[in-house]
Design goal:
- The chain has two domains: about 170 residues, 2-Layer Sandwich (Uridine Diphospho-n-acetylenolpyruvylglucosamine Reductase, domain 3); about 110 residues, CO dehydrogenase flavoprotein, C-terminal domain (Enolase-like, domain 1, 2-Layer Sandwich), CATH 3.30.390.50.
- Helix content is about 35%, strand content about 25%.
- The protein contains twelve helices and 14 strands.
- The strands form four sheets. It has a five-stranded antiparallel sheet with strand order 4-5-10-6-7.
- α10 packs antiparallel against α11.
- It starts with a strand and ends with a helix.
């Protein structure tokens, strides 16, 4: 790696002032699990890294708010995994984190960095979209709130400006909704997924009152499966309804081929796992 400057501001305001929006070689660094790999591979050659590890402690806190959760962007994934509040309010999130990479990565990687990286293979985005989560951001222009669904613009792309930082993840109260995440890997359970499917369901008797379905890893970004949602909204859950939803999902998104499988293989995975994710959400609220 080439030499670079490391700045360690003590406040968010100082950090924002150190990030040059016109210089792509200046970047913030949180946990650095992805950025360091890019630097070692010479994909990214920084002139300055702005470390966020010393900014205000409130950005490393998890708080209950209006029945939901406010999670600081600097909370590590392992802290999120161990949080009693997370286990109580959104157990699907804690279960997902147990199969996200490995404990060494989770001990360092942060919530904000995970989302800002924009990697379509990440496990958190589809789950958070299914939960209706949003992020708060800050930049010299001010603050804004974005649905996680609207954060991702494409393959490794987000709508964040170069001098805009995620400050908080907000997960609303889930009420009677139940959720699950299924991860399909060609290797170990904590490997990069060939496909991820998240489902969040509110049922009324034997019928689905409302549903959110999200696919990832096989698509260029975590993507709502709105055609499949439409098939299941108001429907009584049976094998035929789930099969129709799987067919709709397989037909509505563009599937990307990679080393983990062909487009045809991943499309068939999606067709099958949409129904399985819905069934798991209804049965166990995301418990493995």
């Amino acid at each position: 790696m080439i030499p670079f400057e490391l700045a360690e501001p003590r406040t968010l305001a100082e950090a924002l002032a150190l990030i040059d929006p016109d210089d792509p070689s200046v970047r913030p660094i949180a946990g650095g699990t992805a950025l360091m790999l890019m630097m070692k591979a010479a994909v990214f050659r920084p002139t300055r890294l702005v470390s966020l590890r010393r900014i205000e402690k409130k950005f490393s806190a998890i708080a209950e708010a209006n029945g939901g959760l406010g999670i600081g962007a600097m909370v590590t994934l392992s802290a999120l995994e161990r949080s009693a509040a997370v286990r109580a309010k959104v157990p699907v999130l804690g279960n997902t984190l147990r199969i996200l990479s490995n404990v060494r990565v989770r001990n360092v990687a942060t919530v904000g960095g995970n989302l800002a990286h924009g990697d379509p293979h990440m496990d958190l985005p589809p789950v958070l979209i299914a939960l209706g989560a949003s992020v708060a951001t800050a930049s010299p222009k001010g603050e804004r709130v974005l649905a996680v669904e609207d954060l991702f613009a494409g393959y490794y792309e987000t709508v964040l400006e170069r001098n805009e930082l995620i400050t908080e993840l907000r997960i609303p109260a889930q009420g009677k909704r139940r959720a699950a995440y299924l991860k399909v890997t060609a290797g170990s359970a904590d490997d990069w997924p060939a496909l991820g499917v998240a489902a969040s369901v509110e049922a009324e008797g034997k019928a689905i009152k409302s549903i959110r379905l999200v696919a990832s890893a096989a698509t260029e970004k975590a993507t709502r499966l709105k055609a499949a949602e439409k098939v299941l909204a108001g429907a009584a859950i049976d094998a035929a309804a789930l099969a129709r939803a799987g067919d709709a999902a397989a037909g509505e998104v563009e599937i990307l081929a990679d080393v983990r499988g062909s487009a045809a293989y991943k499309r068939e995975l999606l067709r099958v796992h949409v129904g399985r994710a819905v069934q798991q959400a209804l049965a166990s609220n995301g418990a493995p």
